[in-house]
Automatic annotation (TrEMBL):
Source species, domain of life: Bacteria
InterPro entries referenced in this protein's UniProt entry, alphabetically: Trp_synth_b-like, Trp_synth_b_CS, Trp_synth_beta, Trp_synth_beta/beta-like, TrpB-like_PALP, TrpB-like_PALP_sf
The family this protein is said to belong to: Belongs to the TrpB family.
Protein encoded by which gene: trpB
Pathway(s) this gene product operates in, as recorded in its UniProt entry: Amino-acid biosynthesis; L-tryptophan biosynthesis; L-tryptophan from chorismate: step 5/5
Protein name: Tryptophan synthase beta chain
Single Gene Ontology MF annotation: pyridoxal phosphate binding
Catalytic reaction equation(s): (1S,2R)-1-C-(indol-3-yl)glycerol 3-phosphate + L-serine = D-glyceraldehyde 3-phosphate + L-tryptophan + H2O
Record function comment: The beta subunit is responsible for the synthesis of L-tryptophan from indole and L-serine.
């Protein structure tokens, strides 16, 4: 029988998250205090995060146990299925074997609950009453809203304004879980008012929304900030994806030669890639890792690896990452979850070590790839996930050209059920490709902070 779906039982779920920092050949550059320029201490992070998340952020421990309370909620949708894309292989006429890990089966429709649930849990046991966050396309805001409902926490979401208007059903989805959703930039924070004073018609950005959320969080002891990507503890939580995929590919009697994922902040890519990268770091396997990003927000392919702020108002610590400059405000292309000026510092560090290659594609090619995938496999991907689909299809076609039978694994990080307007616009010919030009990049990078490190 040609198996299509590889599933694990609940008792085969991962019991630990994998921390790649324990296996890296060189440590990450330190996070710096924006005022002193010196490495921050755990105490500096206490206004934003509970103690246990801070400990995970700085941990060098290889395996970190997943709490039972988190496991019990994970079991609502985990383990997620691994599919062999046999119909896509046939449609492409490729000798490659293509597998995808499907995270769209979660209640929120994406991989984001993998970190939303533990973040809400650690805040709940720390006595926190309210969580503040930002969201781009709305998948992270939906996931934290879900987690807030599970743990009885108030949730406030600053949603990038262009997505707030593009995706009313995603907004309604968050509100159904009890969250309050605010279009960013808003008049509710000093950071938002300053942006609106300078740019009254601003579409917003993740950097601006982060500034608003952080500003509110530090003003109230009962409120903490939650982030859906970028930070070390977020990437850590997502490794349940790759750990499950390892076991499922063992069931299939296979192992990937190539691993592909889309990248915005870096969490879903790290989730699928880092558990496999452990074998590469040990010299046991030679795996090609491909991070795919939008040409309109080319953080890895055109950004600079340097210290920068994670937000527009410069309220966050300074981290060394691939960045387009914190003043970068992307155009309103449809992959809202990938519209961020920076990349996860841990993922940026791994790229700098030469372990990952990066590619950028325009949104038209990505939507075309998404429809090719949907018509072969039956699942309509989120616009963000279309970038991974495009990357995987290109690798499969390269195998066809070379006559090479390689195994490709990619992370289908979410479905596109709340993105139908984007697909309607694409099929009506209303979408356009945009690229972040060299002049615009140079202008944004000219405002980078000067660091003596």
């Amino acid at each position: 029988m040609d198996t299509i779906k590889y599933t694990l039982t609940e008792d085969q779920m991962p019991e630990f998250w994998y921390n790649i920092q324990a296996d890296l050949p060189a440590p990450m550059p330190p996070v710096l205090h924006p005022g002193t320029g010196q490495p921050i201490t755990p105490k500096d992070l206490e206004p934003l995060f509970p103690t246990q998340l801070i400990e995970q952020e700085v941990s060098q421990q290889r395996w970190i146990e997943i709490p039972d309370q988190v496991q019990s909620i994970y079991r609502q949708w985990r383990p997620t299925p691994l599919y062999r894309a046999r119909r896509l292989e046939k449609a492409l006429d490729t000798p490659a074997k293509i597998y995808y890990k499907y995270e769209g089966v979660s209640p929120a429709g994406s991989h984001k609950p993998n970190t939303a649930i533990p973040q809400a849990y650690y805040n709940k046991i720390a006595g926190v009453k309210r969580l503040i966050t930002e969201t781009g396309a709305g998948q992270w805001g939906s996931s934290l809203s879900l987690a807030g409902a599970f743990f009885g926490l108030e949730v406030v979401v600053y949603m990038v304004k262009v997505s707030y208007h593009q995706k009313p059903y995603r907004r309604a989805f968050m509100e159904s879980y009890g969250a309050r959703v605010i279009a960013s930039p808003s008049n509710e924070t000093e950071a938002g008012r300053n942006i609106l004073k300078q740019y009254p018609d601003s579409n917003g950005s993740l950097g601006i929304a982060i500034s608003e959320a952080v500003e509110v969080a530090v003003q109230d002891e009962q409120t903490k900030y939650a982030l859906g990507s970028v930070l070390n503890h977020v990437l850590l939580h997502q490794t349940v994806i790759g750990i499950e995929a390892l076991a499922q590919l063992e069931m299939a009697g296979d192992y990937p030669d190539i691993i592909v994922g889309c990248t915005g902040g870096g969490s879903n890519f790290a989730g699928i890639a880092f558990p496999f990268m452990s074998a590469k770091l040990k010299g046991d396997r030679d795996i090609k890792f491909v991070a795919v990003e939008p040409a309109a927000c080319p953080t890895l392919t055109k950004g600079k690896y340097t210290y920068d702020f994670g937000d527009t108002a410069h309220l966050t610590p300074l981290v060394k990452m691939h960045t387009l400059g914190s003043s970068f405000v992307p155009q309103g292309f449809h992959a809202g979850g990938l519209r961020y000026h920076g990349m996860a510092p841990l993922l940026s560090h791994v790229v700098d070590l030469g372990l990952i290659s990066a590619k950028a594609y325009g949104q038209l090619d990505c939507f075309a790839a998404g429809l090719t995938f949907a018509r072969a496999e039956g699942i309509l991907p989120a616009p963000e996930a279309n970038h991974a689909v495009k990357g995987a299809i290109d690798e499969a076609l390269r195998c066809k050209e070379e006559g090479a039978s390689k195994t490709i694994l990619f992370n289908l990080c979410g479905h596109g059920h709340f993105d139908m307007q984007a697909y309607m616009d694409y099929q009506a010919g209303l979408l356009r490709d945009t690229e972040y030009s060299s002049d615009e990049i140079a202008m944004a990078l000219a405002g980078l902070p000067v660091i003596s490190q």
